[in-house]
Amino acid sequence: MKTKDDKSTGGDPNSDASWLERNVNVVIAGLVIACIGSLIAQLWWSPLFDAEHGHPPEFAIEELFGFEAMFGFAAFVGVVFLGTGLRLIIKRDEDYYDS
């Protein structure tokens, strides 16, 4: 049952919904296919770009498969937590603009 204020499209192609809202499943499927294709490409061409062709690893941990990805994710998590802590330091009161 739709009310007068209901903004859902209900599958109506003539509604005011954007292209993304009408085709969200197609967009998600395309992103999944692109991610899988990127992974396959990386696994296929990674032997061409191993440590022999680039710089030699300075530490033994750098030789682990996926080290760069794990390090990048850990750095991302660290930045998020640092940002949360920084927010506690620099945030303003709710009524900052009212006073």
- Class from secondary-structure proportions: mainly alpha
Please outline the major beta sheet: none
Secondary-structure element series: HHH
| Distance N to C terminus | 46 Å
Low-confidence stretches: none
Beta-strand level of the residues, as a percent range? under 5%
| Approximate shape | flat
How many DSSP H or I helices?
3
Backbone CA Rg: 24 Å
Helix content: 40-55%
Number of domains: 2
- Count the E strands: 0
What's this entry about, in short?
With 99 residues, the protein is an all-alpha fold.
Describe it.
This protein has 99 residues and is an all-alpha fold. The chain has two domains: 1-49; 60-94. Helices cover 51% and strands 0% of the residues. It has three helices and no strands. The model has no long low-confidence stretch (mean pLDDT 80).
List the helices and strands and how they pair.
Blueprint: H1 19-22, H2 24-45, H3 67-90
Features:
99 residues, 51% helix
